[in-house]
Amino acid sequence: MKILLIGANGTIGKAVGAELSQRHEVITAGRNSGDYRVNIQDVQSIRDLYAKTGTIDAVACAAGNVTFAPLESMTPEQFDVGIRDKLMGQVHLVLIGREYVSVRGSFTLISGSLADEPVLFGSSASMVNAAINAFVRAAAIELPNVRINAVSPTVLEESMESYGPFFRGAEAVPARRVALAYSRSIEGANTGQVYNVL
Amino acid sequence: MKILLIGANGTIGKAVGAELSQRHEVITAGRNSGDYRVNIQDVQSIRDLYAKTGTIDAVACAAGNVTFAPLESMTPEQFDVGIRDKLMGQVHLVLIGREYVSVRGSFTLISGSLADEPVLFGSSASMVNAAINAFVRAAAIELPNVRINAVSPTVLEESMESYGPFFRGAEAVPARRVALAYSRSIEGANTGQVYNVL
Fold first, then answer.
1. CA separation for the pair B107, B129 (Å, rounded)
2. CB–CB of A71 and B121 under 8 A?
3. Dihedral sign (CA A119, A125, A127, A129)
4. Identity of the residue in A87, A92, A142 whose CB atom sits nearest the CB atom of B120
5. Between chains, do A137 and B143 touch, taking CB under 8 Å as contact?
6. In degrees to the nearest 10, what's the CA dihedral of A103, A64, A184, B72?
7. A104: alpha, beta or left, given left = phi > 0 and alpha = psi -120 to 50?
8. How confident is the model over B116-164, as pLDDT tens digits?
C-alpha cells in the first residue's frame, strides 16, 4: 500500500512509520519536516498536499494540537487551537482526501482517552477527542467507498516527562502499541471503529 | 430558584419553561424573544445577558444550531455553525456564567442522541453532541462550586415533521419528557452527568 502519514515526526508518527514501512510505502508529511509540508489548519495546505501525493491507499494522521490549561483560565482562543487543529484539521483531511484515497482505502485519525476519562486541565482535549470519535462513527456510514477509524490512546510512556503531571496514576503505553492500532485500522477491514489503546 | 432559560421559545425551551415555572422564577432569553435577547455565538452578547440577570441559581440552555447535510457536501462553514453555536456557544455560557451562578447552582446544556448513534446527514450533530457530553464530564471536575450536566434527547415528537426523514425508525420522545431531565439536573444534586432521553 501507499500510505500518507501526517505528523510523521512526532512520537506516535515515528512509531507508526516504523511499523508500516516494514510492509508498505510510507509518504511522510508534517508541519516542519517529512517528504511534504502541511498545516492541517489550512484547507489550501491540505489541498496542496493531496495534489502532490496523488492517489493513495491510506491516510494515517498522528498530528493535532490541543491546549491543556485550567478550565477557569481557558480563553476562546485556547479552545480554538484544539478545534481548528486536532478536530477540524483532521476532518478536513478526510473531506478533501476522500477523492484521493483508493476504493476500500482508509483514514485513521488520532483522538485520545480523555474523550472518555477526563483529567484536570484537559477539558479541551476531552471535547475534541470525543468529537473526533463521534465524527468517525458518523462519517463511516456516509463514506461507502472508503473506511475511517480513530486510534484513542492514553498517555504515552515517551511523553510522561511532559504530560505525566496531567495523568498521575495512568498506565502509560509505549508508542509502538499505538502504532499497532494504526496497523489494525489500515491493514484490517473495519470502519467506524475507535481503537482504544489503554 | 431563579433560573435563566436560554432558547426559551423553542420546542424544548417551552416545555422546560412550563415544567420549571411551576416551582421557580424562570427568566427567559432567546435570539428573537424572551425577557432578554442573546446570541450565544457572541461572547459579548453572553456577557451582556449575565450583566442583566445578575446572580442566578441555574442556567438551562435549550438553544444551539447545527447543520444537517450530506457529509460529501458539507463545507467548512457548515461545520462552523455547529461548532460556533451549539458547541462553543454553550461552552461560553458556562465559562462566562460561572461568576453569576450561586454555590451548588447548575448549568444544564443540550446535546443529543446522535452523539452515540449516528444517522445519515448528521455528522456535524454527532461531532458536536459528543463534544458537549465530554465537555460536561470534564468541566464537572474543574468546577467545584457549581454543577454541570447535559440533556441528550433523541428526536422530538414535536419535530418529526421536519426531522423525521433523518430519524426513520427512531422512537420519538415528547418535549415534556426532555423537560423532566432538565428538572432532574437542576433540582437534583448530580454533576458531570449526561441525561439521555430515549
1. 16
2. no
3. negative
4. A142
5. no
6. -30
7. left
8. 999 999 999 999 999 999 999 999 999 989 999 999 999 999 999 999 9
Cell digits of residue A106? 482508509
User: For residue B58, what pLDDT is reported?
Assistant: 98
Q: Which residues contact A73 (CB under 8 A, 6 or more apart)?
A: none
Q: Do A70 and B121 touch (CB under 8 A)?
A: no
DSSP A98: G
Q: Is the pLDDT of residue A144 over 90?
A: no
CA A1 to chain CA centroid, nearest Å: 19
Q: Is residue A20 a contact partner of residue A2, using CB atoms and an 8 Å limit? A: no
The 10s digit of each residue's pLDDT in B162-186 is: 999 999 999 999 999 999 999 999 9
Task: Rounding to the nearest 10 degrees, give the CA dihedral for residues A29, A175, A79, A69.
Answer: -140
Which is nearest to A120 in space by CA: A165, A172, A85?
A: A165
**A136 to each of A15, A193, A195, B39, B126, how far by Cα in Å?**
22, 7, 11, 30, 9
For B70-89, the pLDDT digits (tens) are 999 999 999 999 999 999 99
What single-letter amino acid sits at A93? L
ipTM of the complex: 0.97
**CA A156 to chain CA centroid, nearest Å:** 14
C-alpha cell at A120: 484536570
CA distance A174 to B88: 34
How far is the C-alpha of A193 from the C-alpha of B47, rounded, in Å? 40
Report the residue of A71, A79, A129, A146 to disrupt the B interface, i.e. the one with the largest count of B CBs within 10 Å. A71
Q: Which grid coordinates are listed for A81? A: 487551537
